[in-house]
Amino acid sequence: MNLLTSLNAIVNASVSGINLAETFTNSSFLVNLMLVALILASVASWALILYKFFQYQKAKKETQSFIAFFWKNDDMKEVYNKSLAYKNSPVASIYSQGYIEQQSTRESWEKLGVVVVGSKVDDLIGNVERAMRRESHARMQLLENGLQFLATVATASPFIGLFGTVYGIMNAFTEIGKTGSATLGSIAPHLSDALVTTAFGLIAAIPASIAFNYFNAKLQKFENESVNVTADFINQIKRSNI
């Protein structure tokens, strides 16, 4: 839970001292519109972060259990039966699809009287590799879904906040021009309200950026484990047909 704890600490430190009701009252319609957009983006990204966090935790836990069993067992059928229990593990799913493809290819060839020797072993391996690669792409895409949104929030939010700040400062100087007063007491409230959009932009962007990098690192580990399992499964097929 370290990721969620760190993100909560960042947000709590960022929002302290900000009075939303007063900010909305003193800001222009356009600035308020940007604030609402940033708040909605932050809420949506947090909801996605929580969902992806628990999704990745389940995948990680089941993958670790499957990998431990896989490396200790050379019986492909037994490993396949075990993989069916790990519905949330992308690596287990990739293995099961490879095994299914191997069995179905063998059965179809046996009906035709084809013996799996020589070049047919390479054909079998090619079929299995394609099946496992196809399943790998599908499962990694499932884990990757939503990360693009986090990347967009992390990239765009600071610029939206900056635009709101620039617009707010322009309004502040316009107000100064109308009143003819440029004392610190007269411009400080305007500048404070203008800078709020940058603050909210960072509040939305920082957790999204941290979470995006965190999930990307986890995704890379799943991909590496999938490559290792695929390579070893192919070697098992080769050994069993020598």
- As an assembly, this protein is single chain
For the sheet with most strands, the description reads: none
Extract low-pLDDT stretches: 13-17
Helical segment count: 8
Name the average pLDDT: 84
Helix content: over 70%
**Number of E-type strands:** 0
Tally the structural domains.
Answer: 1
The SS-based structural class is mainly alpha
Q: Give the CA-based shape.
A: rod-shaped
Protein described:
- With 242 residues, this protein is mainly alpha-helical.
- The chain has one domain.
- The protein has 8 helices and no strands.
- The chain has helices at residues 2-15, 20-26, 29-72, 76-83, 90-111, 119-144, 147-179, 184-240.
- Helix 1 (2-15) runs antiparallel to helix 8 (184-240) and helix 7 (147-179) runs antiparallel to helix 8.
- The chain is rod-shaped and about 95 Å long.
- 29% of the residues are buried.
- Residues 13-17 have low confidence and may be disordered.
Please give a handful of descriptors for the protein shown.
242 residues; single chain; mainly alpha
